[in-house]
Write a structure and sequence with these properties.
Length: 283
């Protein structure tokens, strides 16, 4: 009995010492990794003029994985569920940052037509291109005023207008902005009539926006059907498990059942991808 107690003491003592040595080192690695991720996310947000408190962003990157890890552990009562929750938690901050950037870009693209109308009106009134951009910055709200205001600041710093528009096109890539920047650069090099060019460009962009809206409306039904069909198997499995937690035990305990489960998951992923591809229309 004393020998067994001694073995237990040595075992737990060794485990405690090992944890005492390894946990701080692992924590430091995880901390540096998340800090690097937070800096990358802050860089993307700053480039888009989106300001977020660094402490809040860091807490989001730490709290989200921790909370979802415990949620996954509580729902599945297994290590796999905890790891899945942890993985989802690490991905949520990146998804939030990406959605913020996408929302800003979408709002910018909606404002391009109004910006073109202001530039065209100012050029018709005899103002230069830079003066027209200043009027655009004063008249329109964010984010287009911020982006074109950056062009003015870069121009004051000695950066050429061509390079500033190329930088804008890199930050806010879209066909409409590409048409605008290309038209301005070509007109400045060849000496063309920018005012007349803007008038045609406004008509072209308006027609394209109208066509895009029509395509989105017509393809919305297919997208909704795809979402419903993709969620049905997952919802059915959750409903069955909630009524009978042991319903899938036979499949999970037999090699053939496990193979069928893997096949079902792969088929579900392939089906979701194909539905998304078929409902996507490029104009």
């Amino acid at each position: 009995m004393a020998m067994k107690m001694l073995i237990y003491i040595l075992f737990f003592g060794s485990a405690t010492v090992l944890c005492y040595q390894l946990v701080p080192a692992i924590w430091d690695k995880v901390y540096l990794w998340r800090a690097h991720g937070v800096e990358a996310q802050r860089g993307k947000l700053k480039e888009m003029f989106l300001d977020m408190d660094p402490q809040k962003l860091f807490l989001l990157n730490v709290i989200s994985p921790t909370v979802l890890c415990f949620v996954g552990l509580g729902i599945t009562r297994s290590l796999i569920g905890a790891l899945m929750g942890l993985a989802v938690g690490f991905g949520i901050p990146a998804i939030i940052v990406k959605n913020m950037i996408v929302a800003r870009k979408s709002k910018f693209h909606v404002q391009i037509t109004d910006g073109l109308m202001i530039l065209s009106s100012c050029l018709k009134g005899g103002l230069s291109l830079l003066q027209s951009i200043e009027a655009l910055v004063e008249e329109l709200p964010q984010p287009i005023s911020q982006e074109f205001g950056l062009i003015l600041r870069e121009n004051k710093m000695g950066i050429s207008l061509e390079e500033s528009f190329e930088n804008l096109n890199r930050r806010m890539p879209s066909e409409e902005l590409n048409l605008l920047t290309t038209s301005i650069l070509v007109a400045r090099e060849t000496g063309g009539d920018i005012t007349q060019l803007f008038g045609r460009l406004i008509g072209t962009i308006r027609a394209k926006v109208k066509l895009d809206d029509s395509v989105k409306t017509l393809s919305m039904q297919g997208k909704i059907q795809g979402i419903v069909m993709s969620g049905l198997p997952i919802g059915f499995a959750i409903l069955v498990v909630s009524f009978n937690p042991n319903y899938f035990d036979i499949m999970l305990s037999h090699p053939l059942g496990r193979g069928l489960m893997v096949y079902a998951v792969i088929s579900e992923i392939i089906g979701m991808y194909m539905i998304r591809m078929f409902s996507k229309v490029n104009v």
